[in-house]
Amino acid sequence: MKAKTSTGKKNILLNNPVVNVVRSNIGIICVLLIIGVLLSFLSDKFLTSSNLISVMRQISINVYIALGMTLVIILGGIDLSVGAIVALSGTVTVGLIVNSGLPIGAAIAIGLLIGVVCGFISGTMVAEFKLPAFIVTMAMMNIARGAANVYSGGRSTRITDEFFSSIGSGYLFKVIPLPVVYMVVLIVVFTVILNKTKFGTYIYAIGGNRESARLSGVPIKKVEIAVFTIIGLLSAFAGLVLSSRMYSGQPSVGDGYELDAIAACVLGGVSMSGGKGRISGTVFGAMVIGFISNGLNLMNVNSFWQLVVKGIIILIAVVIDSQKNPDSPISKMIGKFKRSSAKKAA
Amino acid sequence: MKAKRLIALLLCAVMTVMALASCAAGGEDGKKDDGKDSDTYSFAFLANTQNNTFQSTMNDTFKKLADEKGYDYVCYDPDYDLNKQLSQMSDAATQKFDVVFVIPVDSAGIRSGLQELKDSGAIVINVDTAVIDEDRDLVSTLVATNAYMAGELVGQQMAKDYPDGAKIAVLDFPENESCVDRVNGFLAGLGDSKDKFEIVAQQDGKAALDASMTLAEDIIQANPDLEAFFCINDPSALGAASAVKSANKKGDIGVYSIDASPDGKQALVDGDFTCVAAQVPIQISEKAFELSLDLLNGGSVEAEYYLDSMLITLDMAKETLNDWQ
Question: Domain-by-domain residue ranges, chain A?
Answer without folding.
Answer: 24-322
